[in-house]
Design a protein that fits this description.
With about 170 residues, the protein is α+β, with helices and mostly antiparallel strands. It has helices at about 1-25, 125-135, 140-165, and strands at about 40-45, 45-55, 60, 65, 70-75, 75-80, 85-90, 95-100, 105-110, 110-120, 135.
Amino acid sequence: MGDVLIDSKLKLRNQIFDLEKNIANVGNHFKGDSDYCPLKHSFADGIYVREIFIPAGTILTGKIHKHSHPNFLLKGIVNVVTEGAGLERIEGPRSIISEAGTKRALHAITDLVWVTVHLNLTNTEDLKEIEKDVIAENYKEYNRFIEFKKNKFVSIYNKIIKKLIL
């Protein structure tokens, strides 16, 4: 049963990447901030907030995030596909938590206003620096990040245990 679930998730992941490739082959595609889907960036102590307006009919894919983070669909109706949940219809206003490693595809049924909130521990306003901390370019990079985080945790854990034993 577990292998079937894993195969199903990988199939959805591959379909999202196939959609992304197909979108890239369309003449009027865009990446990031654009007049079509404008972004608004806000900063608070230790936090980066990203708001995007997505017009009805838009089909897009998201990036792979290294950390779980809150999302707020402030306005609109959207069909969302992720490998974890499959196809979901979400209506705003609604809050959700994106799990780390999630890549999604979405189809805006109506105009959307979508907000994501990310840690910004260095308080930088340099979006390229924030993306290095928040985004994995692909799942190979994401898996390296998870392994690094796990090893870092184990190292800290071992130091604590060693101090407790002494």
